[in-house]
Write a structure and sequence with these properties.
heterodimer, A: 436 residues, mainly alpha, two-stranded antiparallel sheet, B: 292 residues, 83% helix, 0% strand
Chain lengths: 436, 292
């Protein structure tokens, strides 16, 4: 018996693939209802049909994304058990309450998104807008609860293990509000809102580049772009806080992130191929000669895979910095002439930012997940001890790969169709039935 | 507290069968009716509700892994193949339905196939757990899978008679009435012998049979709203009968009392918001759209 290495790799790949897919959709569908609600509120206040059109269009996209996000999230619930049964059997009760709360938040979100999307003609404008609020709050709350489970996997608390390896003395709330929760939850919620802002803005940036520079497209770009650009610098501060937390609480992950091979005083910062002497010590401990532990401080069996956390961390930081600069460019132009930057290069960069922000989020996720290896529960349970020992997992990942490949293509095609229909519509056209 | 938690899991499972299951069944009829208007009616009836209906499954899974982590891990680990098929079916189905809002003429085959595959796999796993079968490809699980598909189709046809009457007209309602009568008779003929063969010794058999017969009479007399209740009762009783059959050792697998207590508090608090919202969701879309 015992799972083969291939099956273990297959299980991890399947989890990474399905989670990596879900996280994009979930991110956009957490933020998009908020943007939709903002546009609907502006339409209600000003009577401006452009806002109304934006609200209807975004609601429609949110409907598609929420549906695919909901079902791809369900797959993850299944996989918790089908791929990692030993993890669930041992620790399900420790972190389960967070999922119960997540379930309720998600239920509220699902009920009200049904009411919101289909209720335009059945409810007064004021009540309709109010039904959008539980969608936004439910989305943010369920994101928070889910992340508490991941933060628990990094900083397991709220239980003890007896001599035979059984969990005793369980304190579910202590598990949920573990030391990693504040940084992880804040960082991920901001990241997901940024993903929403920059991806939606990118769709309109492409339309603007193609010469459709009417008010509809300018607002369709401006609202989500502002949303993302305002959050980007905040995320830098939060990211700094998060990496300092990792440096003090998961030093081996930090060593992998910064590619510190040897414990030393005055550690250099490695950026791409360049090394800046003493800079990392200065950044982390505010002392250029401070000692930081390198990967050699741990036995190699307790180290994350070499290279991946460092590359993905730098990628995330690099793209994040780019997004801040892009926002700065827009702010500069607005300050100078109350308009978006005139250069087409700005729009090209904004279109690219839609892809970049997704890569940044995936890279950040890779950093924290791969950086936690070889543990599924940091310091307590190895990922290899959690995996399903049934055979044939490799076949499973192939099936999932095919289905998700088709799903990704179909989702993008449908969303593009939605965006294209939009620009061919005669304008202004205030009313369209969502549930036609 | 373990009993209350188990009761809630069964309640969630029943809700998933009666609401989510009917959505799967609606997918089956979606393939049968073929006509564009008929399909639009089915999608319209499901539209605002299916996501909320679907969450019952997540509710059941989350509650099971929190309250009976060992049981969840054991079932999911052993039956990972049918459960993976079910999960992929859920993805394909939900996405296909959402995509059809934007491109109405496509994804019908995916929607239909996944609407058959998912309840079959879930039913097979339930059958394997209830009868203690070690493989999902044994006789009992396959029977249970087929029965589940039948129950879903029957429920959907019975529910859709009312929706068709409301959204389309008496002609389409009559069509679903004949579908419901036919599947009701078939599923009844399939369920009762099965219950006896697999040793369900429970008055629930009688309840299911009686509710099933009442449903057929109500359908015959075109009492479309009343049949929703009796058809749900007939179907739910099958699930409870199967649950009574299972020999899972739950008391030794339950989570710590601190966990159970907190879960029940969370669910009670959540229920205060959830249940009225859910009732509002269902009632809101039963009314015709007010003229603007």
């Amino acid at each position: 018996m015992g799972s083969s290495v291939d099956d273990f790799v297959a299980a991890r790949s399947q989890m990474a693939l399905t989670l990596g897919f879900h996280i994009i959709l979930a991110s956009i569908s957490v933020g998009l209802p908020a943007l939709t609600l903002l546009a609907e509120w502006r339409a209600h206040r000003t009577g401006d049909p452009v806002y109304r059109r934006l609200a209807r269009r975004w609601a429609k996209a949110a409907g598609v994304l929420f549906a695919v996000g909901a079902v791809s999230g369900t797959v993850l619930s299944f996989e918790m058990g089908t791929l990692w049964p030993h993890f669930m059997a041992t620790y399900g009760q420790v972190f389960g309450v967070a999922f119960a709360m997540e379930g309720i938040a998600f239920f509220i979100e699902a009920i009200f998104i049904g009411i919101y999307l289909y209720g335009w003609d059945r409810l007064s404008p004021r009540v309709h807008m109010l039904t959008g609020l539980p969608v936004v709050v439910g989305g943010l709350a369920s994101t928070f609860f889910v992340v508490t489970v991941n933060s628990w996997m990094n900083q397991p608390r709220g239980f003890k293990l007896d001599a035979s390896g059984h969990v005793t003395d369980v304190h579910p709330l202590a598990a949920m509000f573990n030391p990693a929760t504040p940084t992880e939850a804040t960082h991920l919620i901001l990241a997901s809102l940024m993903v929403c802002g920059f991806t939606v803005a990118a769709v309109y940036a492409v339309a603007l580049l193609r010469g459709r520079r009417d008010r509809y497209h300018r607002l369709g770009f401006g609202i989500p772009f502002t949303f993302g650009a305002v959050l980007a610098p905040i995320q830098v501060v939060v990211g700094d806080w998060a990496s300092r937390f990792v440096a003090s609480h998961q030093p081996v992950k930090f060593a992998a992130m910064e590619d510190i091979t040897h414990t030393a005083n005055g550690v250099p910062l490695k950026l791409g191929g360049i090394e800046l002497p003493d800079v990392l010590s200065l950044m982390v401990k505010f002392n250029p000669h401070a000692r930081i532990r390198g990967l050699d401080a741990w036995p190699s069996s307790d180290e994350p895979p070499a290279g991946i956390p460092h590359i993905s961390f730098d990628l995330m930081v690099g793209i994040g910095t780019g997004l801040v600069l892009l926002g700065g460019w827009a702010l500069w132009a607005w300050w100078r002439h109350r308009d978006l930057p005139r250069s087409p290069w700005f729009l090209r960069a904004a279109a690219l930012a839609g892809v970049g922000v997704v890569i940044a989020m995936e890279a950040g996720w890779t950093t924290t997940e791969v950086g936690r290896q070889p543990w599924i529960v940091y310091g307590v349970m190895r990922t290899s001890a959690a995996v399903n020992r049934g055979s044939g997992m490799t076949l499973g990942v192939v099936g999932v790969l095919v289905v998700y490949g088709v799903l990704a293509v179909a989702t993008v095609t449908v969303l593009l169709r939605l965006a294209r229909n939009d620009s061919t519509e005669t304008y202004p056209q205030p009313v369209e039935k969502v549930d036609a | 507290m373990t009993e209350i938690a188990l009761g809630l899991i069964l309640l969630g499972l029943s809700a998933y069968l009666l609401f989510g299951g009917a959505d799967f069944g609606a997918g089956v009829w979606h393939a049968v009716v073929r006509g564009r208007r008929e399909r639009a009616m089915i999608e319209h009836a499901m539209g605002p509700l299916w996501e909320a209906n679907h969450v019952w499954l997540i509710f059941v899974m989350v509650l099971t892994w929190t309250v009976f982590p060992g049981v969840f891990a054991d079932i999911a680990g052993r039956f990972w193949v049918p459960l993976s098929f079910a999960a992929l079916g859920i993805v394909a189905r939900g996405s296909a339905l959402a995509f059809r809002k934007v491109v109405p003429d496509r994804y019908a085959v995916t929607f239909a196939t996944a609407s058959l595959l998912t309840p079959f796999c879930l039913g097979a796993v339930a059958g394997a757990v209830a009868t203690g079968a070690s493989s999902w490809l044994a006789l009992a699980p396959i029977y249970a899978g087929l029965l589940t598909v039948g129950l879903c189709a029957y429920l959907a046809a019975a529910y859709l008679t009312w929706d068709a009457g409301r959204l389309s007209g008496p002609a389409l309602a009559s069509r679903f009435r004949s579908y419901a009568l036919a599947t009701g008779a078939i599923v009844g003929a399939l369920a009762l012998p099965g219950a006896i063969v697999f040793g369900v010794r429970s008055p629930l058999i009688g309840l299911s049979a009686a509710a099933g017969l009442v449903s057929l009479v109500l359908l015959w007399r075109r009492r479309y709203l009343a049949v929703r209740v009796s058809a749900a009762l007939a179907t739910g009783a099958v699930l409870w009968g199967a649950a009574a059959l299972s020999r899972l050792d739950l008391t030794h697998q339950a989570a710590a009392p601190a966990v159970l207590r907190l879960v029940l508090i969370v669910l009670a608090a959540g229920g205060v918001i959830l249940l009225p919202s859910l009732v509002w969701l269902y009632l809101l879309f039963q009314r015709p759209v007010p003229p603007s």
